[in-house]
Amino acid sequence: MYRSRVKTIILAGTASFLAFALVTFPATAVEASKDGLNTWWTIVFPSLLPFLILSEVLIGFGVVRFLGVLLEPIMRPLFKVPGVGGFVWAMGMVSGFPTGAKLTARLREEKQLTKLEAERLVSFSNASNPMFIIGAVSAAFFHNPKLGFLLAGTHYLANFTVGLCMRFYGSDEKPTHKRKETSIPSLKRAMRELHHTRLKDKRPLGKLLGDAVTSSIQSLLMIGGFIILFSVINRLLFHLQVTSLLAGGVEKFFDLFSFSSALSIPFIAGIFEITLGSKLTSGVETSTLMHQAIVTSMILGFCGLSVQAQVASILAQTDISFKPFFFARILQAFFASIYTYLFWDAFSTRFLEDDKPAFAMPDFINDTSWLAAAAEKWMEAGPAFTIICLSIYVVVLFIRLPWRKRTI
After folding, report:
1. Which of 105, 125, 123 has its CA nearest to residue 317?
2. Which of 50, 155, 172, 189 qualifies as a FRET site for 378, CA 20 to 30 Å off?
3. Are 242 and 27 in contact (CB under 8 A)?
4. Own/partner long-range contacts of 204-211 (Cβ < 8 Å, ≥24 apart)
5. Of the ranges 38-52, 71-85, 246-260, 330-344, which one carries the lowest mean pLDDT score?
6. What is the Cβ-side half-sphere exposure of residue 100, based on CA atoms within 13 angstroms?
7. Per-domain boundaries in the chain
């Protein structure tokens, strides 16, 4: 009872403080909202929507079930999750946050995952996508696309390590039901599961596509709200000197490892929002590139409270606990920073020295113009794509209105 009252006071106090800050700095809040909205409709929406729609269609057609049977002998021994987790893991890495959480919740609703398996899977199936790490962080922020291959490599290696660690989560609990042991993937059984799953989903193709579009856009609208909210919170905390206050404690920790104290504010910003934290880290001129890379790896691994709030909102619709996911993000931030430190000497010797070594990357990677041009074209087309998809979403909702059906 006492803890509940304390929690109520903390939540009410925090909300009141943010409301006061919003009224005190209205212009700052509006500018931050615009930045968050711009990020959502130029990058996030067009990047995630195709993957989310495709994932829903693949689940409906039984393709995910098909892949689950084939991947069972790999995913079960490594991560103690069913084979369908391999699909979620791959989609989570390719499309980025929070696709892994969305698909995990979807498969939990389909009863293809137990609660324990879903909590294990969601802890390592969410990651930054390669385009963001290499294109945005490395090429756009650091102006060094080669650095992106180190950041991406350590990020996904840390993600894999987290998956291995989380296989022991809940190992003391007894399984709710027995599963058939599968040693060799059976293509025949996989085809049978694919066929049965498709027959079980009795929705016609038009209904399936409509459901996929509406479900995906509803999720992206929620994600956009969180991006805007945390963009405002981050900017307000900076103007209220709260970020500087928190950075004071981080400075002492960084001093132990001879890191520049100027990295403390970008690190705190990255705790709240991954993009802003990475951008500020790249702009610290008093730090070495190695220290900047380590801090950026930590920010990418933790993924920011903005992304975590998105995941928490998705998981709240199921019985999946958020705590394992949060703990896993701390683990990934730790592992990613350690791996970046361990691989830095080998990476810098081969790829960052002036004299091109034997194992240097191809010349086209040294030229950042193609990445910058691709990112610019993508951002130019992003708003138009978002508006078109939202228009289709409104039309689909209008067609499905109950009163319209009764009138017809």
Report:
1. 105
2. 155
3. no
4. 208/56, 208/57, 208/60, 208/61, 209/53, 209/57, 210/396, 210/400, 211/56, 211/60
5. 38-52
6. 25
7. 20-170+181-407
